[in-house]
Amino acid sequence: MSLYITRQPLINRQGKIIATRLRLHSQDDDSAAVIDALNGLVDCWPQSDRSIFVNFDSIPGDMGLLDWVAPANVTFELPGAPFCAEQAADFVAALKEARLSLCYDFDASAAQALNSGTGFRFIGFDLAKFSPAQLKVLAAKTQAFGIPVVFNVDSQQGFKDCIEAGMSAAAGWFVKQPSESPAKQLNASQAHIVRVLNLVRKNADVGEIEAALKQDVALSYKLLRYINSVGFGLSCEVQSFKHAVTILGYEKLNKWLSLLLVTASKDPMAPTLMHTALTRGRMMEQLGQGLVDRQEYDNLFITGAFSMLDLLLGVSMENALEAMHLPEPITDALLGNGGLYAPFLELALACEGGDGAALAAQAELLGLRPEQVNRAQLAAINFADTMEY
Question: Span of the secretion signal (predicted)?
Fold first, then answer.
């Protein structure tokens, strides 16, 4: 079964992720095979309270969808077709009995779907099909049926227009567009984090690093908070930087200090950018297992985590990396110069696109099965969900 999953963040008017939207890509028209594949992913499913929209537009909408033992945080995103089929009454009855969270993808079958008696929590609109002006009218007409959200928004202006049109949230990668022109250099706080990172990379004396950290109390607090987070999974609480060095060693500490730089942004969309960066990093780290040497795993994580530094820090990628003494494979991948880590970064990026064939091709390039890619992505989303920004 060649099921691949891509994703979009669903972002509210405050710039916070309120859900993750998963799109299913399959060359198989058999919904039963798709459901089997989804049931095989339940053990790595994101566990947070944040909703996971699952889009079934490309999968035949029939009773087989209800064979998925869906996790509690799933919202089924359904097109109108099953509400117009011969078995529509049975389908609606089964949906009511299952008490699922539902989103109706507004289409030409709206009359049948909305008047079927189905309790939709959300009404989803595709920005590729409706203009902001049309969305404003539709939001008013459908407000009694569910919360209006919009999908496939790819520009900052499009996001603003949709929110002004009455949409509660928008899904898409408009966050990848810079909100303003890049600065020429890092600000003082960012530069300080880079100095601490460089001290760790060259294995400086613990006292020297601790002294540098103490120059910024908030930095020390943030570092310990990350290390003690659920995502890190330590069995004991780390009390100080010296304690962290003892337990983790310099190599692992370098990875977690890198998070401080990723989370140093003041951009309004920073929470979404951080979540994306951490998802990429964790996914690359997991996909590399068995394909690169064990000592490369942390570097794969850092490559993914740093892949949005230009947006997070408001400078060009070249300027962001200029003061950092990163290993060459990381720098090469981030600057688009190929190298060992580049195929893993390309695969992580493909999971954010809408092209299932391109994702499949990139996975095949690394010799990875669909299930491996899907499991790594879901586990990475779960990891990013556990981190505090």
Answer: none
Phi-psi bin for 203: left (phi > 0), alpha (psi -120 to 50), beta? Answer: left
Whether residue 166 is found in the same domain as residue 293: no
**Contact indicator for 323, 191 with CB cutoff of 8 Å:** yes
Per-residue CA distances from 22 to 28, 36, 73, 142 (Å): 18, 16, 13, 24
| Pair (14, 115) in one structural domain | yes
Tell whether 70 and 211 lie within a shared domain.
no
Specify the CATH number for the domain of residue 138.
3.20.20.450
Is residue 183, in this structure, part of any structural domain at all? no
Do residues 115 and 131 touch, judged by C-beta distance below 8 A? no
Amino acid at residue number 160: K
Is there a contact between 80 and 89 (Cβ–Cβ < 8 Å)?
A: no
Stated pTM of the model = 0.89
Distance CA 193, CA 297 (A): 22
> What is the distance between the alpha carbons of residues 185 and 361, in angstroms, rounded to a whole number?
37
CA–CA distances in Å: residue 248 to residues 202, 231, 236, 245, 304 = 16, 15, 12, 5, 21
Phi, psi of 340 (to 5 degrees): -60, -40
Give the pLDDT confidence of 95-143 residue by residue, as tens digits. 999 999 999 999 999 999 999 999 999 999 999 999 999 999 999 999 9
Residues 166 and 249 occupy one common structural domain: no
116 and 207 part of one domain: no
Q: Is residue 287 part of a domain?
A: yes
Q: Is residue 181 part of a domain?
A: no
Domain count of the fold of the chain: 2
Q: Are 305 and 292 in contact (CB under 8 A)?
A: no
**Model pLDDT for residues 153-211, shown as the tens digit of each residue:** 999 999 999 999 999 999 999 999 876 666 667 777 778 888 888 888 888 888 888 88
Cβ-in-10-Å burial (0-12, 13-18, 19+) of 295 comes to exposed
Q: How far apart are CA 54 and CA 24, in angstroms?
A: 8
Pull the structure tokens for residue 129: 């099909």
Nearest to 299 by CA among 350, 349, 341: 341
* Phi, psi for residue 115 in degrees, rounded to 5: -100, 15
In 3D space, the residue among 48, 125, 76, 3 whose CA is nearest the CA of residue 279 turns out to be: 48
- Whole-Å CA distances, 254 to 136, 184, 246, 247: 48, 26, 13, 13
